[in-house]
Amino acid sequence: MGKVYVFDHPLIQHKLTYIREKSTGTKEFRELVDEVATLMAFEITRDLPLEEVDVETPVCMARSKVLSGKKLGIIPILRAGLGMVDGILKLIPAAKVGHVGLYRDPETLKPIEYYIKLPSDVEERDFIVVDPMLATGGSAIEAINSLKKRGAKSIKFMCLIAAPEGVEEFQKEHPEIDLYIAALDEKLNEKGYIVPGLGDAGDRMFGTK
Ligand code: PRP
Ligand code: URA
Q: Which of 73, 83, 104, 106 is within CB 3.0–4.6 Å of 127 for a Cys-Cys bond?
């Protein structure tokens, strides 16, 4: 079974509080999500493989380490996932970025896919799928189904806030995939919003309603 990692770093938790706060405006919300995405990217890349190489310092030759292994791909789920991309690219600027466009039907809460564009070498990359919210889990599950259908073999999912109901569904559908989250909240309400959550992530990120 895939693991659920909750990033309890004090900086992530502090910034998440202000992301949740309803009086936080669009500009600050975006900046905070960007900063938290960078901090989470630092944690999620902890297990990247390294190899030794020769390096000539001003003093002498030395053995030192560089990243090895597969190249990375970041897949934001549109719209709100877009707000996490730049923060991750600050640490792994060479990563390619694919996009999966999904929205939840407000009545059924089922995800509807409207766009997909992935790097051409899907089978060769390690992917991090990002979205601030894992609520019912439908969007994350569907995005990862789309990636798998196109040949992706290695996938992690990263979000800011998850609901227990969404985590359970996600693990049923994708039991081998690890989840990286900043907070596991209490529950979903009758409208499918995470409680306490942060409200509608896309609307808060882009100032729409
Ligand atoms: C939000 C959020 C997730 C999804 C989570 O997107 O950004 O993608 O809901 O809910 P789920 O786990 O129940 O599927 P939304 O559908 O509001 O689209 P948007 O990002 O375009 O606003
Ligand atoms: N999507 C959001 O943006 N917020 C929620 O609480 C649930 C789904």
A: 73
